[in-house]
Amino acid sequence: MYDISFTAVAVLCVAAALAGWIDAVVGGGGLLQLPALLIGLPHLPPAYALGTNKAVSLVGTAAAASTYLRKAPVDVRLACRMGVVAALSSAGGAFFAAGVNSAVLRPLIMVLLLCVAAFVVLRPQFGQAPGGVVTRRRLLTAFAVAGVGIGFYDGLLGPGTGAFLVIALVALLNMDMVTASATTKVVNVCTNIGALSLFAWQGAVLWKLAVPMAVFNMSGGLVGAHMALKRGSGFVRIVLLTTVVGLVGKLAYDQWWS
């Protein structure tokens, strides 16, 4: 239906590989992959970029999740339950995506991200080691924030979802960075399924483009997951801060200079 040049496909595949690596380590690969799709497909409605992005991300995130589950101490039952809640919220966010005024949301998201960055910088031990008792109240709060709130945002916009999830799981459930990142992958798989289901139903997924991009995204995700497991929480923390700064810069550019 739509012709895409070989050069555009090649560039998008490279972007997908890098996004898969970022997503596997800490989340936020959409910061790179979604803008790449929007730029590479300038003549298509934005919904096609959003839908194709979800299809690609699902494969890469699933590959990273399988790697983490084999080697990281993940509470699979908790992650899946949170993922189901997030998937339903993500589908709801995707439903409203066409009518969202992103110019209104960007400043709020930037403030939240800057607060996250400041907190991580000022708390060097944040996410280095688990500790503390997880009460029922904290667990319910985690489901509300990570499952409902961040899940809805993932379907609505998407970029930065993984980073938000990691911070929420570390702060609310006392996880270390690696375990939080691993749990995030399981939740992200569910949110991607929720949003992708709606985009696919609307016919807004370019499957012929999504397949090669997914292969590259999966490769990047596998490499990123192995690096995170090998290098530990300190490495994940550095990548998280870098991703947050990059996301704030991208949102600021979209808000005031694009």
UniProtKB/TrEMBL annotation:
Annotated keywords: Cell membrane, Membrane, Transmembrane, Transmembrane helix, Transport
Keyword Acyltransferase assigned: no
Keyword Zinc: no
Superkingdom of the source species: Bacteria
Transmembrane stretches, start-end: 48-69, 78-98, 104-122, 143-173, 193-215, 235-253
InterPro entries per the UniProt record, alphabetical: TM_pro_TauE-like, TSUP
Membrane topology term: Multi-pass membrane protein
Pfam families in the record: TauE
Location(s) in or outside the cell: Cell membrane
Family label: Belongs to the 4-toluene sulfonate uptake permease (TSUP) (TC 2.A.102) family.
Name listed for the protein in its UniProt record: Probable membrane transporter protein
